[in-house]
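Per reviewer request, we include the raw input and output of the structure prediction for the construct analysed in the revised manuscript.
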Amino acid sequence: MTRALAVYTAAGALLLGGGCALIQPPTAAGADADASLPSTTRAALILTVDAPTPLRNLLERHLDLARLQQLPANERLGNGELNRLIAAAPSQARELLQTEGYFDAQVSVQRENDGRSATSTASQPRASQASALTPARVRLQVQPGPPTRVTERRVETEGALARRASVGDADALALQQTLQTVGALRPGQVFRNADWAASKQQLLTRLRSAGYAAATLSGSSAAIDASTQTARLMVVLDSGPLFGAGPVVVTGLQRHDEAMVRHLAGFGEGAALTEERLLAYQDRLQKTLLFQSISVGFEPDPAGAAQTPVRVRLTELPLQQATVGVGVSANTGPRVTLEHLHRRPFDWPVVAYNKLEWARDSQSWAGDFQTHPGAGFYRNLLGVQIDRLRSDTDVVLSQRLRLGRTQDTPRLERLYFLELLRSRQAELPGAAVVLSSSAAASTATALSANLHLVWRDLDSVLLPTRGITLALQGGAGQARHPGVPDGPFARLHGRFTGYLPLGQNWYGQARLEAGQIIKRDAVVVPDALGFRAGGDDSVRGYAYRSLTPVDEAGGTVSGLNVLTASVEVARPILASMPSVWGALFIDAGRAVTHWRDFKPALGYGVGLRWRSPIGPLRADLAWADELKKLRLHLSVGIAF
C-alpha cells in the first residue's frame, strides 16, 4: 500500500514535540480510581526493548514508557495510566521506526509478571495492592523488517533557472544536472526522515549558492509503498531570479585606495553573484594583509536582482605590525625571529616587509616592497635577501636581489622575477676537512629569469588531511665564476605533496621532490642554486644538508641533482586527545653531481605530532640506515 509521507511527518512531529503531554497525572475517572492508593503504591517501571542497537537507542530515547523510568518516586503514575501507556506503546514505536525507514515493522508489548495484572484498580484487596511496590516489568519486542529504500528521486525547477535552461543556457543546464545529484537521499539509499529533510535543505543551499539567492521550496512529496519497501521522492524548487552584480559599494576604508578593492572583485556588472565568486573576492582581500575584518555580500531583493549592489565592509589593520617568534629545529637549532610590516610607508600604496632570523646554524635577513594588488590581482615587487647557512664542513653566504611580479589566487600562486645572486662558499673553521679551492675561487654570481608556481587543492591550508600541493620552479640565466668560463644554465625543481585519509582514523602523507641544474661541465653556478638533502622535510635521520656530494678534499658542496621521497602514516593516539597524533615514516634520497652516482640514503622511524591552532608541531626519532645512528628531529615555533 502507498502512503504519503506527510502523514508520518506530522505524526512524528506530534510525537516528538508533544510526547511529554502523554505523561500527565491521571485526571477524571483515572484520578478517582487511584485516589485511595497511597503515594508509595504508585507504579514503577523497568522497560526492556528487544531491537537492533540503533533502533533500540531511538526507542529508549523517545518512547513515553522509556521516559517513565526517569520520573521521581513521588511522581509515579497510577496503574491505570500505566496500562494505557503500555497499550499505546506499539503504535508509538511504529511511528518512530517509520522515521528511520521501517514502514512494515512488527511491534509487540508484554507486561511481565510483577504480582498484579495490567488492569489492577483501587478496588482490589490491600494485600494485592502491596505487591504494587514491585516495579512493573515491560518488554517491547521489535521486528523491524527490511528498510524502505529510495527507488526514484526527481528534482524539478521553476522560475528563472527553468526559463534559462529552456533556451539552452549552458550554465543553467549544468546546474539542473547538478541538482539531480545533490542531497543526502539518492536512489538505493535507505529512506530516513532526517535525511529527507536534510536533502531538501541541501538542494536549496546549492541553488542559492549558484546565484539564485531567493530560491524557495515549492513542494515535495514522498510516496511510500510499505508492501515493497520502496520510496519515490519528488522535489520542486522555485529558483526565483538570478542575481547579477551591480556596483561595488565599499565602506570602512580610511587610508587605502578604493580602486584597489574594486580591482580585486575580479568580475564586472551583470556577473552572477555565486557563493564561489564572492568567497574568492573575500579571499583575495584577505591575502592583501591590509584588513582585519572583511565582509562581502548583498541583499537578495528580487525587484532589483539584475543589478544587485555588492557590499564590501572592511576594517583596516594598523599601519604597522611587529612580531617576535622563538622556536627550535633539528635543522638549524634554536632560533629567534623579528618581523616588521608597514602597510603604507610614506603614504605609498605598497607593503614594506622586513624579517630577521637568527639561529644556531642559519642567519638571514629579508626585505621587500610589494605594491598593493592591481588589475589582474598582480603585485610588483622588489626584494633583497641575505642568507648564511652552516653545515658540518662549510658556510654558504648568499645575497639576492629580485625584481618581479606576483599573483595570488585561491589555488594558484605565480611569481615571475629577475634575480641577481651572489654566493660564497668558505671552509668552516675547525672542520675536519678543507675545501680544495680558495675563498676567492668559491665565489660565484648568476643573473637569471625565473618562474615559480604553487598549486594547492587542500581541505585545510594550515592542517591538511586531504588534497595535494604542487610547487614548480624553473629558471634560466648566465653564471660567472672567477677562473672559469662564463656560461648559461637552467634550473628545474619540483615538489609534490599528497594527503589522504586511510580510514579507521589513519591518515597518509607522501612527498616527492626532484631537481636538476643543466649546464656545461666547465660552468660553475653559485652554490646557493644547488641542491642538498637531509634533515626535516627531506631525509630524516641525517644532519641538515648533509646528503650532498663531496669534492676532492672531502668537503661538502651542493649537488646538481636531487631526488627525495617520503611516506608517512599517522593517527590520533587517544580519542580524548584528537589533536595529538603518532606517526610512522620512511624517507629516502640524496643530492648528487651526476645521476649515475645516485644511491638513496634511507631514514625511518616514529614521530609525535601536535596539530595546534598555529600549525603542526613535530618530534621525530629517526634511524639513519647509512650511518646506523638515531637522530631526534624537532620542529617547534611560537610567534608573539
